[in-house]
Amino acid sequence: MAKIKIQKKDIWIDMTPMSDVMTLLLCFFMLTSTFLTPEPVSVTAPNSVSEVKIPEQDVLNILVTPEGHVFCGTENKNNMQAMMETMTDKFGVQLNATQIKHFREDAMVGAPMSKLAAYLDLDTEKMGEAIQKLGLPLDSINGGKSEFQEWVAAARDANPDIKLAIKCDSKTPYSAIKKLMSELQDMNENRFQLITNLDVKRLND
User: Fold this and answer.
1) What element of type H or E holds 157?
2) Cα distance between residue 98 and residue 100, in whole Å
């Protein structure tokens, strides 16, 4: 008995609708994504089971390294510009156009006012190296506010509704965190949030 040959047919699938859907999804994620501002130093926050989310806007982020160096900044560049103008006027520091441009491009403030101009004169790559050894001074100036407190006050002047969020490394000494909190409490900034990583393992136990 002769075998029946089944005629083979090519299967053609129209991929146009799928490519349209992929394009729409790509556009959606690009428009709705929130890009994280790079931090000047690498900090690994401790874990916790808190699920309270930090607001995405109107936040002054305060960063504390394991060495106790303090940095602060906000993603709103207009507020950063206003903070810079307040601080340079207060401390009598003059910045040129290039230095101001570098300041606006920087993620956070971390250089003392006495070294700010020299720091902003560096190339972008060298700024990243230099900032590792700097930090905002927490010592009071002539019995008044410290430079860190002045930056916080300048942020409050730029945006009265700004919220404070502290992110410290899991290896940051408690004494450094306590001093930072005391600085905030001395200027009646008693409401702030601590940024931590979600401990999924402990949350599920």
Assistant:
1) helix 147-158
2) 5
Phi, psi of 187 (to 5 degrees): -105, 25
Taking the C-alpha atoms of residue 128 and residue 112, their distance in angstroms, rounded to an integer, is 15
Mean pLDDT per 10-residue section of the chain, whose length is 205 residues = 63 72 77 60 56 70 86 87 91 88 84 89 83 85 83 91 83 84 86 65 52
> How far apart, in whole angstroms, are the C-alpha atoms of residue 83 and residue 87?
6
Q: 155 vs 39, 91, 113, 194, CA distance in Å?
A: 18, 16, 16, 18
Backbone angles phi, psi at 93, to 5 degrees: -100, 130
Residues with Cβ within 8 Å of 164's Cβ and at least 6 positions away in sequence, in order, are 59, 60, 62, 152, 184, 189, 191, 192, 193
Alpha carbons 76 and 161: distance in angstroms, whole number: 13
Compute φ and ψ for 89, nearest 5 degrees: -65, -40
Secondary structure letter of residue 70 according to DSSP: E
Closest CA to 127 of 148, 101, 147, 145: 101
